[in-house]
Amino acid sequence: MLARKSIIPEEFGLPGLASRMPRKPVFRDRVNKARFIAKNGSCNLAHKNIREQGRFLQDVFTTLVDLRWRFSLVIFTTTFVSSWLLFAMSWWLVAFAHGDLDPQRQNGTSCVTDVKSFTSAFLFSIEVQVTIGFGGRMITEQCLTAITVLILQNIVGLIINAVMLGCIFMKTAQSNRRAETLIFSRHAVIAVRNNRLCFMIRIGDLRKSMIIGATARLQVVRKTTTPEGEVIPIHQIDVQTESAVASNSLFLLAPLIICHIIDKTSPLYDLSAMELQCSDLEVIVILEGVVETTGITTQARTSYISEEIQWGHRFVPIVTEEDGVYSVDYSKFGNTVKVNTPRCSARELDEKPSILIQTLQKSELSHQNSLRKRNSMRRNNSMRKVGSSSNLRRNNSGLLSPKIQFFTPSEGGGQSLNAVT
Predict the structure, then answer these.
(1) Going by CATH, does the domain composed of 178-363 fall within 3.30.1460.30?
(2) The whole model's pTM is what?
(3) Which of 2, 176, 301, 348 sits at 20 to 30 Å (Cα–Cα) from 193?
(4) Burial code of 59-87, b = ≥16 C-beta within 10 A, e = fewer?
């Protein structure tokens, strides 16, 4: 019996057929890497092995403002209680040195009236620093030391109050609170706009109070290697936007679409749709301006990785005019619609303009077909309405009151027929 190898030639076997079939280019899966900027704007960066920790104590005010609320409240409480205890000890020492703690001594010769123990000295310290003044304890003119301690405690108390109130005000009026109402679209899109391939995002402000002098900046962050072999893990490349070229700032009254034209100077110039999905780049968007109500500069940030960039999509319009007023529908803020877009890179579009022309022709044909479908649907609906109205008229004519016939006696004994409707 002949072997199977001699019956079926090797070139017609499965391995031979598979080797002769054309293969598509295989791209490696993108390695999961950490985001540099999270979607909520927080920086995904950890500082380690900082040896000069004393630099944070040189800027105590900024350190207190940057602390979390629970740590700030603990520090505030500890500071006030420590100052009260410190000056309570001072008042107790003044009373002890003057002999006011002796119960046999008259009250008229004491430095502070009714300070007979450390507890009463502590209560008097609170009254002096908080300026409560219940009236039971008061300073007298008997000793100069008590007057000096009173002046010193007032000065220290004013400094502590100013620092603590300033920290609380800065923590409650931080610029990142205003940035919570500055929103970005969930996805970025790449489509043809004005015969150019563009990278677009949508930004908006939920408040009626405006951001004065708003500016939007784009940066591409990715890992690069220089010709000398130096590896740069976080290489930041500035991206020029169309709005920055036209004017210095944005008038962020209604949601705007920030557009970046992918030209020769763009880091996205050599990326096609498939290569973009396999790349490890991250596009960072920074929106900053001055808050109209407080005058504080605020900044909102977000980022888009390759999975969050939709190729061949366009944002749907959300601003309409209703009764003479422009209305913004934020339920459609991040909605996109598919459009005909070349899947090749911007470099290939510049080298082969026919690709873009064919795409524009296809989009125009699809637009005309959609208009024809809409017109045909409108005609069908109008014909249906006309047919239904004619049928309704016929039905109404059938529902008219029938003619009623009755006989009345006439002269000559005959009967005449009268019809009444």
Answers:
(1) no
(2) 0.65
(3) 301
(4) eeeeebbeeeeeebeeebeeebeebbeeb
